Here is the input.
Amino acid sequence: MTRAAAAIGERESNGGALRFPAGKGLRLDSGATLEPLEIAYKTYGRLDAAKSNAILVCHALTGDQHAASIHPVTGKPGWWDRVIGPGRPLDPERYFIICSNVVGGCMGSTGPASIDATTGRPYGLAFPVITIGDMVRAQAMLVEALGIETLLAVVGGSMGGMQVLQWAADYPEKLFSAVCIAAAAKHSAQNIAFHEVGRQAIMADPDWRGGDYETAGVRPEKGLAVARMAAHITYLSEAALQRKFGRQLQRDGLSWGFDADFQVESYLRHQGAAFVDRFDANSYLYITRALDYFDLGAQHGGVLANAFSRARHVRFCVLSFSSDWLYPTSESRDIVRALNAAGARTSFVEIETDKGHDAFFLDEPQLDAALRGFFASTAQARALT
Amino acid sequence: MTRAAAAIGERESNGGALRFPAGKGLRLDSGATLEPLEIAYKTYGRLDAAKSNAILVCHALTGDQHAASIHPVTGKPGWWDRVIGPGRPLDPERYFIICSNVVGGCMGSTGPASIDATTGRPYGLAFPVITIGDMVRAQAMLVEALGIETLLAVVGGSMGGMQVLQWAADYPEKLFSAVCIAAAAKHSAQNIAFHEVGRQAIMADPDWRGGDYETAGVRPEKGLAVARMAAHITYLSEAALQRKFGRQLQRDGLSWGFDADFQVESYLRHQGAAFVDRFDANSYLYITRALDYFDLGAQHGGVLANAFSRARHVRFCVLSFSSDWLYPTSESRDIVRALNAAGARTSFVEIETDKGHDAFFLDEPQLDAALRGFFASTAQARALT
Here is the structure.
């Protein structure tokens, strides 16, 4: 265990990177092994003496371990700062909160920009294809290394929610509860289609160089920005776009050209430009691929309920947003039906909002209330003081 | 009038290109004038002696004048071959059907790939920004040149439907009836957002060369293909994608790489690749811009009904598809409400289908029935034999 890991619980925000050497690497679903393996993570709060108050937070496609601390690249608050913090649903005064960068990511965990020990150069496309199962297996290695046998909860939205479901399937014995927000048990054809557009945009950029851009000292920024712009539309509802932007112009009158005339154009361009500063294009390829490959039912003989057959003791909370068209409520209902069929105790709330998929990042009082209530009752059930 | 125009009505499929010389060019909404102007068009059937059986068909974003004849580039039947033909709702035995390529297009009408008379080189980005109103004004010039005072009908889907609405606003005195399919009276923020993604994909391609690719002898094929892929997703419903492709694989098993594993990926790639063979990237920029600028209500003091104040005598038919999320039924209802408020006689049908926006190109018996019924009663009302 590294010094940083040993120091866990000593400060409000902590963390570092765990390194697993060759021979102790990560077995991948593809059959390959990823070694050495680094897992970058952050923690908030203190692990109690009984090691019973640990909550693992799983991040979404473009998220990272900086869930509730200042992001080192952007200088902005963490992506779930609204939920994690004193007096918030995940209060570090009460819980020991862990968030790690997924394998394949680009914020310190081993990913395609990491050095391939066999060549001494960045992996690029030599990085093996990874799955949601691989991400979760790496997280389980981290949790074990931190000396935690059972997580009070595993929680996440979007791709984070898929990791939650995979945890329930693969490591139910390590879970007391699980919270799956705005997710699906499999990627739909439309989900795959949008990701494929993003991948093609990146690969069409000549600066992508077959994935070897790191070595060449360039980056496929334009392609990655287009990928982000396309994806970003799917994170917002049509109603939210209309409410926020409508047809409002940037300036008085039209430009009669291809400048950003409409505020929504300017907003999208900004989303694309800001993204390339903090994200790696190859990571985007690999993580979108992991999402597309995700089909938890197919992993269990085509019956989703079978995925949860060992998770009957886990307390589940499934949340969806009424205007989410990326992972619509119908997908969450499929999850709830499977959990019910497996005999797991499950709460389900569809939150009425026009904010779309991204509602789980945004000011959504009903989400806060649902999380607060669920974690409070979970802590009570586990007799946390 | 050209020889081809003079020959109208002599063959089943006819047409050519009308040329309007300098001094007789097209006044544009931007204030510029497009001259000389060419309008490429096709006709099907014969104009009757009373010149009372002419129907103008308006094409969508990536369509052209080859509505019901073999496309010269792809060798495939025209885009509305299902609707136009003997025994079909638009029967050339009965009607004289006209379809012209929009200005800004790339199938013979003046567009950004045309030679700019002032420089002797292709316009590229020197081409003026055009509007739906400009497209319709050019069509009105063609209709006048063909000696037709009143169109029995103007009909179109998607962008074609927007042209129909613009006709009703600008030239109601030339219309007996109007059929608007799967359209909207204005582009929404989400519509603009998707178009902006496409434009950015094209402009990100280094072969776009600031729009001067024609001169350089290259074409931004990768960028245009990505633009098409993103747009194509919006033409299909989530349900249709699921029904057609779901998570079906191209081969047995996953590739564990970035090949097209899923059939939907392969399908999208094919859509992108086929599109660049028949469409010009700058035309895509200009026509999407025209769509984004479209807001018929804003052209009339912010009150859509005012756009139709002179169109009370026109018989309207408005059609929408239940699973169209690009221009959803709510947009058609807004049009219908405005037409009702203006006192125009309006039929409205929402067709139940899971095929999404593209249903107007596809085998949709309810659409055929609605069109057949409307045109039959329209012809009867105009006492066509």
In short: Chain A has twelve helices and twelve strands. Chain A touches chain B through 54 residues (CB under 8 Å). Chain A has two domains: 3-188+294-381, 191-290.
